[in-house]
Amino acid sequence: MRWTASGAAFLLLAAALPAAADDRPLICFGNEPSWSVDLTQRGVARFSMPDQGSAEFWGDFTRIEPLHEAVWRGRPAQGSGADLVVFLRDGDCSDGMSDTVYPVSARASLPGGRFLVGCCRVPVAAGAMSGSAAASSAATGLEGPVWRLESLAGQDASALANAQPPLSVRFHAGRVEGFSGCNRFAGGYKLESSRIKLGPLAGTMMACGEPAMSLENAFRSLLSGGLTYAIVDGRLTLTSDSGAAAGLREAPAPSLGGVTWEVTGYNNGRQAVVSPKLGTTLSFTFADGNVSGRAGCNTFRAPYTVDGNRVAIGPAMTTRKHCPEEGVMEQEREFLAALEATKIWTVRDDLLDMHFADGETRALTARPQ
Length: 369
Known about the structure:
The protein is mostly beta strands. The protein has helices at residues 5-15, 17-20, 131-138, 157-162, 212-222, 328-341, and strands at residues 26-30, 35-41, 44-49, 53-64, 69-76, 84-94, 101-109, 115-121, 146-152, 168-172, 175-179, 184-192, 195-198, 202-203, 226-232, 235-240, 245-250, 260-267, 273-274, 282-287, 290-295, 299-307, 310-313, 317-318, 344-348, 351-355, 362-368. It is built from six helices and 27 strands. The longest helix has 14 residues, at 328-341.
């Protein structure tokens, strides 16, 4: 398993938290991208992301009493890698997605100079949960995967099947997040045997046309309170206290290949992500070690390699056609430069998001054609 520097940093900041928070078991999480850390064992941090699995890290800490902080330095449990330094402090922390206030904040300084922040919470009944109980909870199969909605009480199955992106939900480490048809949502939850108790959900507030809004209202209504869940033959059923039910199936792992991606935005090299010009199409397909497609005027081909969520592309070769329309050739140069500079990719809700090496500056956005 390979990890980005940002993923490793968040894991490492979590590993030190028991020291900064009176040895309380803690779970850390973040958004954009989604990640979580299970800290039920002292000195070991288990980090996970939806599309990358999990990994363990080991570390040690020292306490800086005058600053009321702990400084943690650690290394991967397997393989080699540069040390990361993380500063931890007890105090109110907001995740930016809800009104919940968490008890620990963290600041991580990466070897490459990037600076990151996150929040941590105290798990429900953490002090009473034994190692076997935690393992039993994880073994239910509910937590971790992205579940894609296939059926919903009172809603047209064909509308659900045609929804783009598909409606989905993910439960992990006390955090629930997903896409409800028009907007994304996030919040907290508690597990009690086969019951899920959801807290208030926060999210974006876009308005969409039908049937997206009807699907969203019905799905959010189902998720507004207590639920009973069951998993049979890989299918998850959620049933509300009123008897309304939803059927979901685990979504396949994200992949670059097997899809022709149509570009919805590209970085023009001047700190702006812009839409393709009207009348032009920017698209590409990853297959057999090459990425090929249309650059607005010419077709192109470039070699690529992928390692987890990291990708290396180029150099690109194009046909030699000249298009006289204003700005088309300039767009082609800017698009191909952005594509070749891409280093990190993610797919969420069937939408492709590609970033430069810093992991923050967006290079491209695309959707299935």
